[in-house]
Design brief:
- With about 250 residues, the protein is α/β, with parallel strands linked by helices.
- It has one domain: NAD(P)-binding Rossmann-like Domain (Rossmann fold, 3-Layer(aba) Sandwich), CATH 3.40.50.
- Helices cover about 45% and strands about 15% of the residues.
- The chain is built from eight helices and nine strands.
- The longest helix has 26 residues.
């Protein structure tokens, strides 16, 4: 018997991982609301792959309200993922306050608002919430202080929210990727020297691709993961747990 299609909201849908995930879900006949701040890129994405466009701003209330708007747009809401984030590679003493605030807003604040909005909508019927952390929040990587702080907060949020909402049938899980080749990381991956150094840090000898992360996200959102909650899953080529051979 074919599985019942799910109704899914992707926040940060125009990024590399968000786009790949949206394509996977739509190809498998799920209904998908695509939320992003850049309305031009969002419209282009919807025209190219389908789905329902849901423009949002970067403010807290807009992200909270996205789940209710998606439920209205799609008819119901079964699953939500927050793919939003940023990348700042600087030591703490060289990081300006506005840079730190931007990193925290893009990751921790957006993830918190995602949970707040999704939990309101899913109170009666349950559902799946997936957040995005980083291997950098699980191990010590030089010059990652801001991003590690933000993504570490996402891990703490995942665990607490899973405990709070489990009795309502709401599952909250988190993916912690290693370095993934996306437009966001192009500054690193476009340099042969930095790319080679980054590859060497991953035991499997390659960087991640958007589809590596999207496949796990799909499993957590609409796959057979109904007895999983409060998990931080490393999809990272071993970066978070294994020291690569020199």
């Amino acid at each position: 018997m074919e599985a019942t299609p799910k109704h899914v909201l992707i926040i940060g849908a125009t990024g590399g991982i968000g786009q790949n995930l949206a394509q996977r879900l739509l190809q498998n006949n799920h209904r998908v609301a695509l939320a992003a701040r850049n309305e031009g890129r969002l419209d282009e994405l919807v025209a190219r792959i389908g789905g329902d466009a849901l423009p949002i701003t970067g403010d807290y209330e807009s992200i909270v309200d996205a789940s209710a708007k998606a439920a209205s747009l799609l008819g119901r809401l079964d699953a939500v993922i927050c793919c939003a984030g940023s990348l700042l590679l600087k030591p703490a003493h060289l990081t300006r306050e506005d840079e730190f605030d931007a990193v925290m807003n893009a990751s921790a604040r957006t993830a918190f608002a995602t949970v707040a909005g999704a939990a309101k909508v899913m109170q009666s019927g349950g559902g799946s919430i997936v957040l995005m952390s980083s291997a950098a929040a699980r191990i010590g990587l030089a010059n990652h202080e801001a991003i590690a702080a933000a993504k570490g907060a996402v891990i703490g949020l995942t665990l607490s929210a899973a405990a709070t909402y489990g009795s309502k049938g709401i599952r909250v899980n988190c993916i912690a990727p290693g370095l993934v080749a996306t437009p966001l990381t192009e500054r690193i991956t476009s340099s042969e020297v930095s790319r080679k150094a980054s590859v060497a840090m991953h035991a499997l000898g390659r960087l991640g691709e958007s589809e590596d992360i999207a496949a796990m996200a799909e499993f957590l959102l609409v796959g057979p993961s109904s007895w999983m909650t409060g998990q931080v899953i490393g999809v990272d080529g071993g970066l978070g747990t294994v020291r690569a051979r020199g």
